[in-house]
């Protein structure tokens, strides 16, 4: 079942959510000790913020590396709003980001399916990512 906030997966935004979900899934499959600096930077939070249409004034207040998409996914809606408001975000931006994070959580959970031995090498991730 999809969240009432989620976007149609056949539309452009839905495809972006699936793309970011795939990036998260692939990253999770790479053992921590095998992750490169480049891999740690994916998926890019700045790209997600542009998709959600956060104002540059808000995102420029954030220090590079201060937040990650994975970190935001672990926060409650209230925590996300508190955090964003520290950087000057308004209620509408908080609501948009929370709705988009909800969609991404749903897509990521649906895409994971049953857990198996999912560790892959960073070489395979890089190859997969370059072909997306």
Automatic annotation (TrEMBL):
Sequence ranges assigned to domain Kinase suppressor of RAS SAM-like in this UniProt record: 41-105
Alphabetical list of Gene3D superfamilies matching this protein: Transcription Factor, Ets-1
Region named Disordered: 111-132
Bias type Polar residues, positions: 116-132
Domain of life: Eukaryota
Protein name as it appears in the record: Kinase suppressor of RAS SAM-like domain-containing protein
Species assigned in the record: Pogonophryne albipinna
């Amino acid at each position: 079942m999809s969240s009432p906030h989620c976007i149609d997966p056949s539309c452009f935004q839905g495809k972006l959510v699936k793309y970011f979900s795939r990036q998260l899934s692939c990253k999770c499959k790479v053992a921590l000790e095998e992750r490169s600096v480049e891999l740690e930077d994916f998926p890019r939070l700045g790209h997600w913020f542009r998709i959600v249409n956060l104002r540059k004034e808000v995102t420029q207040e954030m220090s590079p590396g201060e937040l990650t998409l994975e970190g935001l996914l672990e926060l409650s809606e209230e925590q996300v709003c508190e955090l964003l408001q520290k950087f000057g975000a308004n209620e509408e931006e908080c609501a948009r980001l929370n709705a988009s994070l909800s969609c991404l959580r749903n897509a990521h959970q649906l895409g994971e399916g049953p857990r198996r031995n999912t560790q892959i090498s960073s070489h395979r991730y890089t190859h997969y990512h370059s072909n997306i």
